[in-house]
Amino acid sequence: MDNGLTGYIKNLKLQKRCLSNIERLADDAFVLTIEHKHDFLPGQVLAITTDKSVSPRLYSICSGNQENQLSILFNIKAGGMLTPALSKLKPGDELLVSNPFGSFLGDNQPAWWIAAGTGIAPYRSMIRSGLGKHNMLIHGSRTTDGFFFESEFMPFFGDRYVRCCSQETKDGVYPGRLTQWLRGQSLIPPSLRYYLCGSAEMVVEVRDILISRGIGIENIMSEIYF
Ligand SMILES: Cc1cc2nc3c(=O)[nH]c(=O)nc-3n(C[C@H](O)[C@H](O)[C@H](O)COP(=O)(O)OP(=O)(O)OC[C@H]3O[C@@H](n4cnc5c(N)ncnc54)[C@H](O)[C@@H]3O)c2cc1C
User: Fold this and answer.
1) Domain limits of the chain?
2) Which of 49, 99, 133, 162 has the fewest CB atoms found within 10 Å of its own CB?
């Protein structure tokens, strides 16, 4: 984590919030829902921790900005300081949560939304906030149970929803990494905007592909999860 952001996160004011629900989506992935006390822009994040002894970590909001609950999607990092504890929480437990912040913001300009793993979260917030009707959504996962919210995305995006799976196969799912899918596209429209969200490895590789295909850097928006 870069020092500037670490300092910023450490200085954030955290407030107690009650956990209203926790839902398991896959073996190691959960949606956690808390009371909604603040307005936010789709794409923003919250800093969250269980108690003051653990530095807060950042999580993209995955619910819509008109909903009366705030949700995040997270997966357990083995040996991690926070996520194993988050996964054991029960409704009624307390969390420490910041106000929403961040600048990875969706809007109504046509775009390709690209995500790896839990990096899908902000796009769910965007569609639930009324954005993205004509966009492409491209999601990469190692396993087929990692296509979080696919039953919501399928009717919304139709054939503009592309799932890429690197380690398992399934009908309707591209067999390979999303970078491989992207390289195979004859047309990557130069006039669109490209949103990238997920691991640094994915974001850097996709950014390189896009730049090599003539996309201007000013049209590439990135949110790196670290
Ligand atoms: C802008 C932003 C948005 C994000 N949004 C999301 C989101 O929506 N969903 C999501 O799941 N994540 C998101 N993240 C990532 C999230 O903030 C955390 O980094 C992640 O959940 C870490 O979990 P943890 O605290 O349990 O693991 P950590 O304690 O941070 O550990 C992470 C890994 O590093 C290893 N590790 C820790 N310390 C050491 C060490 N000293 N030496 C070697 N290995 C070590 C651990 O074993 C573990 O595997 C986001 C990150 C950013 C920056």
Assistant:
1) 3-97, 111-225
2) 133
pLDDT in tens, 4-40: 777 888 889 999 999 999 999 999 999 999 988 889 9
DSSP E strand boundaries for 27-76? 29-35, 45-49, 57-60, 69-75
Residue of minimum CA distance from atom 50 in ligand 1: 225
Instruction: Please tell me the class of the 111-225 domain.
Output: alpha beta
Tokens describing residue 16: 């107690």
Helix (H, G, I), strand (E, B) or coil at 20: strand
What's the gap in Å between 154 CA and the centre of ligand 1? 29
> What is the amino acid identity at position 87?
S
Ligand 1 is surrounded, with C-beta below 6 A, by 45, 57-60, 72-75, 77-83, 118, 121, 223, 225-226
Please state the atom number of ligand 1 nearest to the C-alpha of residue 75: 11
Which distant-in-sequence residues (6+ apart) come within 8 Å of 189 by Cβ? none
Give pLDDT tens digits for 205-224.
999 999 999 999 999 999 99
CB atoms within 10 A of CB 1: 10
Distances from the Cα of 151 to the Cαs of 31, 94, 156, in angstroms? 15, 30, 9
Q: Could you give the CA distance from residue 226 to residue 206 in angstroms, rounded to a whole number?
A: 16
Q: How far is the CA of 39 from the centre of ligand 1 (A)?
A: 25
- Determine how many CB atoms are found less than 10 A away from the CB of residue 37: 11
Residue-wise over 43-82: b if at least 16 C-beta within 10 A, else e?
bbbbbbbbeeeeebbbbbbbbbbeeeebbbbbbbeeeeeb
